[in-house]
Amino acid sequence: MLEIKNLHVKLEEEDKQILKGVDLTVEAGKVHAIMGPNGSGKSTLSYVLSGRDGYEVTDGAATLDGEDLLDLEPEERAAAGLFLAFQYPVEIPGVGNMTFLRTAVNAQRKARGEDELSAADFLKEVRAKAKTLKIDAEMLKRPVNVGFSGGEKKRNEILQMAMLEPKMCILDETDSGLDVDAMKLVSEGVNALRDAGRSFLVITHYQRLLDHIKPDVVHIMANGRIVKSGGPELALEVEHNGYADILAEVV
Amino acid sequence: MALPELKQTATDARLSALELPKGGCLTAARQAALARVQTMGLPSRRDEYWKYTRPDTLVQAEAVPAAVFHNDEEPMFSNRDRLRIVFVDGVFDAEQSDDLTLEGVRIDRLEDICCTDIHWARDLYGVLEARGQTPVERPLAALNTAFATDGVAIHVTGTPSKPISLVYIHANEASDAILHHVIRVEPGAEATILENGPAASRFNKCMEIDIADTGKLHLVRAQGRDHERRAATHMFARLGTESVFKSFTLTVNGVLTRNEAVIELTGDDAVAHIAGACVGDGDFHHDDTVFITHDAVNCESRQVFKKVLRNGATGVFQGKILVKEGAQKTDGYQISQSLLLDDDSQFLAKPELEIYADDVACSHGSTSGAIDETALFYLRSRGVPADVATDLLTLAFLAEAVEEIEDDSLAGDIVERLEGWLSRRR
């Protein structure tokens, strides 16, 4: 599914290397988690994969089902099946949530050569999916993320994910700013989407989220590299002992 | 005091090309207006109030020819039931107009108010314009009062079942039109007036609006697509107690547009909303100049102006809220914003507040910026192509102004035109 090889990335504006050779393979149907201290490059990895401006890939490659991601525009990556759930979902005053969702869904369908969803079908689908995430009609009518609470914003991300049905989902600190109940709701939303053909890359600081979204593989990222990989027990180890031991071990 | 020589020469040149329409009960008002023009002189580029917009082509004796724009698009508002009053190059066209009778409103041509005994119109013509000359001079409006060749008097006495639609057709490349309308809304009456079209190669329009206590007027205007046309328009409104006036203007294209709105809230609890959305390319130059005077208690005014500019287009906003002594509990809001789609376009803004009462809430803001890159990336990351995402964000930027239109279906018409503009420019 997702294959990252020797990925080197620097900031475009300054001579600062952020990723220093990331190697990572996520197989279809698997959930991989990335943990790591602040500044280790986790969020940069998610932005580079989704095509945000401001980064320069100096070496390496990233492919999704064999297709070179780094050559594509952000919207092309989305159409190819990549989805990033933002750590800080963006507020867009003046654009209705429904309009946004419908535009996105139909743009992707069009890019893949599929027919656009009719207004009625779209409405039916969005209502059903919103309901399971406890997103009410009022929230759907409001401008994108404007006036949403932290929890509402994250649920809205998961709703977008559910509507767009991507192959590869990257969750960037989706647990940040969530209370226990909201985390449970969001996790249930994610788990409902788990599927043999869909993979997840869950970026988080805390093991807590991984209690709800059980990973197959856990990676530790430090200083722009994956320094250790293992099973779910690795997350527990971090939770108990912090990163110091692991980092000391790899150095 | 004598005028500066250049201004005197320019004013004389313009006046010598015009002739005062003769006869009727408006003669005195016209002569008084002419005297105002002669005293003030016509605007020149040295005038502070014309610092950002060059008045030369609006003032000079001959209008600059402007190509007539043709396309197969349905004209604005075509889809709705309305009473059409059509002017071609500034001349009333009875053939194309509807019968002017409609319950709840009386409509007369300007020339007829001179023959019949329509006191309210005679007593309003030139009066609000003259009041609007202080503290800032507006000589083009006085010129209009003196020389207007056509126009209508609209007397709203009830609630007409459909909007009154003023249609301004531009047919001749050399046309130079001066129209003057007077409107009075009686207590408890309510109407919607629509205006659309470029009107002429050069268009000087003045509208005087007197809204009595508890009267309501909605005005939605679209200034056509003829890019080479030039327009100077004035709207003078006086609002009585608990009256409401809401105005929205859409401008796409136009090498020169100066829209002035002079609003006076003279009765307590009155509400005035003046909004505009404009989108322009290249040598597009659009100027919104607004002056709102609060002279009563507990009144609300809103100014919402949004401009989308690209390829070197220029947007101007001069907006003032004057709160007079005693106009307590005033709620004044003013926002002017531009979205610059490239580095060549410019937005020049002069927001002003002048307040002589101590219990008021007035806010103003003016911003100028590019498309929000973060929002753009967010949309693209969901699969929305860059151009569609840019359009979506551009419409979102304009939304606050469009939302000032109370009637959702009219707002929908405006959005459709804006979408059209965007799609033509991909």
Describe, in short, the structure shown:
Chain A has 251 residues and is of the alpha/beta class. Chain A has 10 helices and 12 strands.
Which shape of chain A, going by the Cα principal axes?
Answer: globular
Quick one: biggest sheet of chain B? 10 strands, mixed
Q: Main β-sheet of chain A, in a few words?
A: 6 strands, mixed
- The number of domains of chain B is 1
Secondary structure class of chain A reads alpha/beta
End-to-end span of chain B in angstroms?
54 Å
User: What is the H/E string of chain A?
Assistant: EEEHEEHEEHHHEHEHEHEEHH
Radius of gyration of chain B: 21 Å
Binned, the helix content of chain A reads 40-55%
Question: Per DSSP, what share of the residues of chain A sits in E-state strands of 2 or more residues?
Answer: 25-35%
Order of helices and strands of chain B: HHHEEEEHHHHEEEEEEEEEEEEEEEEHHH
Annotation field: number of helices of chain B: 10
- Largest interface, counted by CB within 8 Å of the partner chain's CB: A-B, 30 and 23 residues
The main sheet of chain A orders its strands as 6-9-10-3-11-12
Assembly state of the chains shown: heterodimer
* Nearest-integer average pLDDT of chain B: 95
